[in-house]
Amino acid sequence: MVLNADFRPLSYYPLSLWPWQEAIKAVFLGRVSVVHEYDDAIIHSPRMELKLPSVIALKEYAPTHRRPAFTRFNVFLRDRFTCQYCGRRFPTHDLTFDHVIPRCRGGRTNWLNVVTACGACNLRKGSKLPKDCGMPLIREPFRPNAFQLQDIGRRFPPNYLHESWRDFLYWDSELEE
Question: Residue 171 domain-assigned?
Fold first, then answer.
């Protein structure tokens, strides 16, 4: 797992992971610091052996983009993988996006006019406005910043989390009393 110089993950969803070869290369080039190592994974070369890093941190801070790219995945993440018409959560392969104001009525493809929809709701709405077909939006579309997407992404942990990663994924989360 890769952390920024402030020890926050470069991204939460998808989690910032590098192949082990890239991690070793970055260690040897002095670009990262090893924060934690796997206990039972050792890399061998003809002249040396070293433990495989499980958590590394960049030595120089990589600024996060304030304006995330407008992508299908980022729209799904902004909307929490939830259809904005029926309110049900779906896996990404069962989601599509819908133009709130249809393109045939002059609607644009941008953050403020596109929402996550399931196939059934998208088909039902068709080229109508939500109010014309009795399908009000659960949440109005908005342009998220990088911090909002990171915060949302933190709620969707990957399927596999190594023990050594857990401390760094949620260290800045609010604790329960």
Answer: no
Residue 79 confidence (pLDDT): 97
Residue 55 falls inside a structural domain: yes
- Residues 167, 172, 173: CA angle, nearest 5 degrees: 95
**CATH number of the domain to which 105 belongs:** 1.10.30.50
| Closest listed residue to residue 76, CA positions, set 118, 109, 107 | 118
- 107: CB partners within 8 A, 6+ apart: 99, 100, 101, 113
* Domains: count for the chain: 2
pLDDT tens sequence across 136-159: 999 999 999 988 888 888 777 665
State the sign of the Cα–Cα–Cα–Cα dihedral 140, 145, 151, 152: positive
